Write the structure tokens for this entry.
Amino acid sequence: MTPETKPYKRDIIIEVTTNLMFPLTLLFGLYIMMGTGGTGGGFQGGTILATAFILYITVFGHVKGREKMPESINALFKSLGLFLYNGAGWICVLFSLAAAQWLNMPAFWPVTDYLGVAGSRSFLVSYMVSIGIGLTVMAAFVSQYFDLAWKEEDEMESGQR
Amino acid sequence: MIPRQMKTLTLFGLITAILLTAVSLYAIEDLPAFGDENSPVNKQIELFSVDADGLVDSLNAGVLPAEIKTRIEEMGFIPGPTCQGCQNENYPSLEEGNYEIEYIQEGTWLGGRVYTKGGWDVSILEGEIYYNEPQQYFFINESDGKLIVYRYNWPVRVTERTEEETAMINAVTSGLADYRGYDTMGEETVILTGAIGVILLVRRRGRL
């Protein structure tokens, strides 16, 4: 189903505004998501990233939205976020040898030699963990919206509504 | 053991599950025991040390020596004559009658932790405005002729040691994934599980 055969008319103003807003929203989401001195965190940043895609799907439909966010990448992000978070923890557990020192105590994690104990904890929390949370939250919300949009269209086609 | 028709992917998943189980068992065995004094909630903060001569008798008599009291006031923790900027702090002052000193033997189980070294416990008495229940305030340990003063309290560690321990200005950010890392991991897992549940419900043809 191409965008031209939609049951509703295209609106050039909404489409141009969406094209302008889409990258800016992604950038804002990344800004919220990362950094130690920031106000936000992974959950909020991931939600803002998801709103960018949700706006895109609302305006252009889920077929064109799939080109921006393919299902394979969505499924990958969903689990990759959790793997980043837990992977950081497992690496800490394995490298600290004889004590499960994940995040609560100084961990001998491989970058400790370069960043120092405190610096490596900061790196873990602000980048690995926050990006992990953000990816999972974004992919979860986007996948739910995709599913709802697809379900609606599917029911419209089969004449159940 | 493994059926012949088992696919490569299933075998890979089985190996991953076995490896993860092994690592989990290793981690569980290594986690700090309940009441461990080095676990983040129970860890004491070392403040300073003073010479012990003559002060031990005073501590045994239940009076905090003026030397220790002045040093604590200078560090800005409690309101007192030598700390001008902290008159509005909510921490109870160490005037006589506000606290209680008790000697704790080595190996005692008290307040959710095991004392691996004996020492004097300075507690806030019941009835204080901001700290209604009696609770531990400072801990003083004697070793090699020195009195080492420690400080209790989990919020104190967050507010005073966050920047040093995690290199972060923002104490809330560090609390999210550092001190309370397991909590956040569970929250993220809940979101992933919810998304998988929605996928299983919605992605099938026909009516539910």
Q: What stands out?
A: Chain B has two domains: 45-152, 156-203. Chain B touches chain A at residues 23, 26-28, 30-32, 38-40, 164-170, 173-174, 176-179, 181, 184-185, 187-189, 191-192, 194-195, 198-199, 202-203, 205, 207 (CB under 8 Å). Residues 103 and 120 of chain B are 4 Å apart (CA to CA). Chain B has a mean pLDDT of 76.
